[in-house]
Amino acid sequence: MPTLGVNIDHIATIRQARRGTDPDPIAAAMIAELAGADGITVHLREDRRHIQERDLRLLRQTIHTRLNLEMAATPEMVAIALDVKPDYITLVPERREEVTTEGGLNVKAQGDRLGKFVNQLQGAGIPVSLFVDAEPEQLQASAKTGAKFVELHTGTYANAKNEEELKHELEVLTNGGKLAIQLGLRLNSGHGLTYWNTRAVAQIAGMEELNIGHSIISRAVLVGLDRAIREMKTLIST
Ligand code: PXP
Fold first, then answer.
1. What pTM, to 2 d.p., does this model score?
2. Which of 49, 148, 201, 221 is the most buried (most CB within 10 A)?
3. What is the pLDDT of residue 82?
4. How far apart, in Å, do the first and last CA atoms of the chain sit?
5. Cα 171 to Cα 125: distance, rounded to the nearest angstrom
6. For position 111, which CATH number holds?
């Protein structure tokens, strides 16, 4: 069974809404670890819309599990990564106008460029994962870069509109996983996974880690709201 990497970007998104200090993603990471998370995942975006460099550096000093840094393949991000040294790096495509990561890297078209970043990072002892769609051409190109891992993009599966589509997309992921392993790649998955669609992905042969953020933080807000309101009522009325 795969391990769970908890993506805490959305904690930072709430903090950035007020540009203040609460809620602190460092505290969230500690709670996640106490609850059994096997790793903490953060995406340091070029526009710094949620996670800040301060968060990344403090997480590096404080967490007990694995720190997975998601980042764009740019010289600026590579310099930060080489300095902070996360346990592994997931290279993702990044466009400023997107709401979240939309689709996997086009490794087929950018293999040489990405391969240079992979070499540099892995040469410094940081294993690299490439976030890709489960397409044979992308997986073959990923293996050629020398990256140790791929993270299969599960967003299309998560957006399936009916049982038939869901079944088809699960097959695409299963076949992609099989090919990745045949190519010598280690296997992670993530994006859009929820309490309803994750189990089937967890059961794909060879799956090592699932990176999940939005669904966990959404549930935390709703299951925690009742207690938070009761605590404020008590504070006001005593
Ligand atoms: N994996 C990657 C590469 C991502 O970019 C994201 C979103 O930041 C996730 C996993 C987590 O996705 P979600 O928040 O939809 O669970």
1. 0.96
2. 201
3. 98
4. 48
5. 34
6. 3.20.20.70
